[in-house]
Design brief:
By secondary structure, the chain is α/β, with parallel strands linked by helices. The chain has two domains: 214 residues, Rossmann fold; 188 residues, Rossmann fold. It is built from 18 helices and 14 strands. It has a seven-stranded parallel β-sheet with strand order 3-2-1-4-5-6-7, with helices on both faces. Strands 10-11-9-8-12-13-14 form a seven-stranded parallel β-sheet, sandwiched between helices. Helix 6 runs parallel beside helix 8. The radius of gyration is 22 Å and the shape is globular.
Length: 430
């Protein structure tokens, strides 16, 4: 097993020049990738810590999902510094917007033994929580050697990811079992993790159901709706991915809804300008959210080119389509829309939220469509039938409410007497 991990580490060192070149390349469109590069190699300017609580959230989705965990940690351990690590600039920005100076944030280093050692020497965490599917063998092994408890929280493992891990099954099995425990979102995730050899898996539920919509953003969305016209129907395409905007514009004329406003919010900020250029080429009248000007009666599309306002977009719409599901990206989080009692439409690719989608469909709050043509049909039907839309939205809200409680089960796991994770000794803030 040591030989396997050594081979893995050697491969990472060989790939490092390519990885750094890719950072620079991605920085052409998103400058954040060219900043704080030293942190990715385990070199930090932040103050040194002792005994902090470390939570890793790779990008935006995981950062938002971590909200109830962060709030519970701040409440439960007020004398403890919380360190949040990310892998993407958008995740880091989302963390700053959501938590401000209540937590420290930086990049988690690449999974190189030297970089991991410098990270742990600098921050000395006493407890680690890793969100969803981030399993780094060298990081977890180094924590185990230092007796640092690390938990995989809100763990999910799609069939596609499972097949990928099977190729390195021996290394995956050892890494999973070096975790203190794994808190799986659902039974299917737990079964796949156990099939890889994990023996420390509990099903605690999806923490995203415990994320309460920010009332400030909900109010902002309602103000937008007043400015747009409360009687004007609003169709939201949330977190769209490359190729999906073109499909949505193809069916724009097939959405047979009088005075309809379609709101398109691309998932990644580096694509905002590209979508704007697409709208220009097609001659679609639109306004950008960043302009601060509400859409007029002549505007057919609002381009949501802003970060950290997804809850407001959901609050302002009548029907929500979840992006990443018309193309094979596995869909994005549908729980926020359900919690705000919005009828949810989702495409055929939903492997990232397979269990939640199935439960939402069974509850009557989520409608899965096979293609963009069916999307046009279902969106039109809901937007022209307010009674049905309200019924589906109410079912979505009931579904979201009924699956809360994962945060309680997670903390029961990490604070159990067997884990010895609570109380956490030696706490101090810099």
């Amino acid at each position: 097993m040591i030989r396997t991990r050594c081979a893995y580490s050697l491969l990472l060192y060989l790939l490092l020049p390519v990885v750094l070149l890719r950072l620079w390349w991605r920085g052409r469109h998103e400058s954040g990738y060219r900043r704080n590069v030293g942190e990715r190699l385990g070199r930090y300017r932040l103050p040194r810590l002792t005994g902090c609580i470390w939570l890793h959230a790779v990008s935006v989705g995981e950062t938002r999902a971590a909200q109830p965990i962060i709030e519970r940690l701040l409440e439960r351990y007020p004398d403890r510094q919380i360190l949040m690590t990310h892998m993407t600039p958008t995740g880091r920005i989302a963390g700053e917007q959501m938590y401000g100076d209540r937590v420290l944030r930086c990049y988690l280093p690449y999974d190189l033994p030297g970089a991991v050692r410098r990270f742990l020497d600098h921050f000395h965490p006493s407890l680690g929580l890793v969100m969803e599917t981030e399993v780094w063998p060298n990081t977890i092994h180094a924590c185990r050697k230092r007796a640092i408890r690390v938990y995989l929280a809100n763990a999910r493992l799609s069939e596609k990811s499972y097949l990928g891990y099977l190729r390195v099954r021996a290394l995956a099995r050892q890494t999973l079992n070096e975790l203190s425990a794994i808190a799986a979102q659902g039974q299917a995730d737990a079964e796949r993790l156990r099939a890889l050899g994990a023996t420390n898996v509990s099903v605690t539920g999806n923490i995203k159901f415990d994320v309460a919509p920010d009332p400030y953003l909900v109010d902002r969305g309602r103000q937008w709706r007043q400015a747009w016209g409360e009687s004007r129907p609003v169709f939201l395409a949330a977190s769209t991915r490359d190729g999906e905007e073109a499909l949505l514009l193809d069916i724009l004329d097939r959405l047979e809804v009088r005075n309809l406003l379609t709101v398109i919010v691309p998932r990644h900020p580096q694509r905002f300008d590209a979508v704007a250029e697409m709208l220009d080429r097609r001659g679609v009248s639109y306004v950008r959210r960043s302009s601060g000007t509400p859409p007029g009666a002549q505007d057919r599309v609002l381009l949501g080119d802003s970060m950290g306002e997804m809850v407001a977009y959901y609050a302002a719409c009548d029907v929500a389509f979840i992006g990443g599901s018309l193309k094979p990206f596995g869909a994005h989080n549908l729980v926020e829309a359900c919690a705000l009692a919005k009828p949810v439409l989702i495409g055929p690719s939903a492997f990232n939220f397979q269990e939640a989608v199935a439960l939402g469909i069974a509850a009557g709050g989520v409608i899965q469509i096979p293609d963009v043509n069916a999307l046009a049909t279902q969106a039109t039907a809901l937007l022209t039938d307010p009674v049905r839309a309200r019924r589906v939205g109410d079912a979505a809200a009931t579904f979201a409410c009924s699956h809360r409680g994962a945060i309680e089960r997670l903390f029961a796991l990490i604070e159990s007497p067997a884990s010895s994770a609570s109380p956490l000794p030696g706490a101090h803030r810099p």
